[in-house]
């Protein structure tokens, strides 16, 4: 393949340039990636698992916190990660990039956001900006509901408390998990509640949520506007070009992830079952992901996925 053609292919894909229709060796049959316990990453990991199995690969998904997951990727214990949120996880990403052993395969989601938010009862107090919070401390019981310990978002919140940003020095970060936090906000009902919120997530449908302005320095502009990226080990990309090509083309959108996460959180489906349902209901969703990709044994990918979904 000529250098010009490689460059044109990379530009068209918006990802790494990988040989078309490159069959992987059997050593690539197991694909290792991690899940930090977030429903959005569980949803995309589930989609990846369904597609991988249809193509003859075996997904091996480890449940690891964000810091541990990045160390696993750095140390070669996993092959890739679909949940590199930027800018929130920039320190982790910078650390990976500094090794020279990791590359970005694709930006797999745009239009995401995350920052602090209040429920309807909080908004009814007139709270719409970070600067409004401290005058209503007692109404919120001085609590900020976050997610799991060690999460970059929690670190941002704790940093605000430690620095007395917006007068929050006497507030408390309540760490738990994504599911527990959403359940707590739901239980609080008409009690003013301050919590970490993000999109995509079904919480935006279930809870009347007001994202707070004024947190640009902490969470970034546009209410913590974010993108999500897939990163992988260079060695794995080079050794397994076919499956790496799949992941370099696997991109999602907010409406898709909202549906997937709703199936998991609201309908009680396992992530792979939710993904299988979604792909069966939206048969064209994976077409672009599979262009130039084969099964592990070198057969066309699209018919293999269709057969798996219809089987």
Automatic annotation (TrEMBL):
NCBIfam families: ABC_choline_bnd. InterPro entries: ABC_choline_sub-bd (IPR017783), ABC_Gly_betaine_transp_sub-bd (IPR007210). The keyword Signal applies. The keyword Signal applies. The gene is choX. SUPFAM superfamilies: Periplasmic binding protein-like II. One of its GO terms (cellular component) is ATP-binding cassette (ABC) transporter complex. It comes from Paracoccus caeni. Keywords: Signal. One of its GO terms (biological process) is choline transport. This is Choline ABC transporter substrate-binding protein. Residues 30-281 form the ABC-type glycine betaine transport system substrate-binding domain. GO terms for molecular function: choline binding; transmembrane transporter activity. Residues 1-22 form the signal peptide.
